[in-house]
Amino acid sequence: MQIQEEPTLYRINKEADKSKGRMIRKANKLVNSRQNFTLTQQRAIILAISQIKATDDEFTTYRVKISEALGLEEGVSLKGAQYRQVREELSKLAKTSIDIKSDDQEWESINFISRVRKERGKDYVSVEFSVHAMPFLLNLKGNYTSYFVQNVYKFRKAHSIRLYELCKQYAKIGSRIIDFGLLRDILYLGDSEYYKQYGRFNREVLKPCVKEINETSDLNLSYSPIKEGRKVVRIHFKVQSGVGPTKVLQSRKTIKREASETSPVSGAIPQKVYERLVGKYTEERVQFYLELLTKRPDIKNISAYLIKALQESYYEEDFRISRKVQEERLERIRAKQIRDQRKGQREEISHAFDLHRKELLLRYEQRMEASDIEVFTFLFEESDNAQERKYVKEIRAGEASRLAKNFCVEWYIREYGDKADVRLLDVKHFSKAKYNFDW
After folding, report:
1. Model-level pTM?
2. Cα–Cα distance between 59 and 181 in angstroms, integer?
3. What's the rounded Cα separation, in Å, for the pair 374 and 215?
4. What domains appear along the chain, each with residue ranges and CATH number?
5. CA 119 to CA 351: how far, in whole Å?
6. At CA 75, angle to CA 69 and CA 80, rounded to 5?
7. Which of 437, 373, 375, 379 is nearest to 405 (CA)?
8. Helix, strand or coil, per DSSP, at residue 97
9. What does the pLDDT look like over 156-211, one tens digit per residue?
């Protein structure tokens, strides 16, 4: 019997890069965060996040190809100068923080990426996320946004990725109203006097980004300003999902999975009701209540019941217990992650110290003269330490082992070397001076 082939529209392109078919999951607090990453840095972060599984409880090290971070087609190679420039740009990720809105609506800065490691001769960088990023990327049960890498991979504007995520979060609702000042803030344009004028912002940021999103992603956006008098105060985005050209790369199974992994809000209550409740009771609490209520088939008007439940604190005890359990679990994971990170840092520093020490010993060994060696043997020939007396015998016999030579040279450095070099003979001082790491 001949098997009927699946229609082309739903067939996955077998030649498409697997990384572009992976899914991104971000907590909505992260989606709404304030970031100042370049396009290349954003791609690298997205490619790293796409390697996190939905069931992961802790981070590992994620490899990101430099060519993919640049958005290059397969087979396109970089020139040496470009390659080094991109590697340097990605290395700056570990020094860049992001700002998350706290429950009291204040921006809080967190270190998002703890480490980016470059390996000589390799075409990738290794990325490690900070423990502070755990609540926003790991084991997300609700209140998150998901999308496929391929939907943002072809963007050529850094703000397009951020605007896409902000609108994707409300794709199931179909629209999003966002404060004009907040949007500029999220895009890291809030301090720019130039973009405080809506006309310039619209012309140079909104229009090009919306055009790019509509042409290359699964979203179709339209928008209109909301004014108070003559001043634009908010922007109303209308969001239509599943209409873009990247849909041809998804199978029926993939499309179904994407739909099932969106935030549990999913249009269960009107957007304005949801936003007002979040402002009054916090998003985490509203989501907890909403998840419970959407599982109850006996409730016909979820909005009304949700308002009453929050006002009367129906599930507050359950919420506190759930939050405490979640915080304790995250604390255990963070503690383990910190231990693992410190272990990895110690190993890296230890390796660097060994190289530094070898170079230092070799440099001072070349300075030593025969008279210095005579002084050394005189001082240690009657040492109380048997191993030190053995080193003296080896040196006098002209059969000094590497350990004997190193011991002799270290003595020379401590007696006659530069103070800075003497301090750096100790791994603790080396670690603090070179890496600002307490050994």
Report:
1. 0.58
2. 34
3. 80
4. 8-263 (1.10.10.10), 264-314 (no CATH), 331-435 (no CATH)
5. 14
6. 65
7. 373
8. strand
9. 999 999 999 999 998 888 888 899 999 999 999 987 888 899 999 999 999 999 99
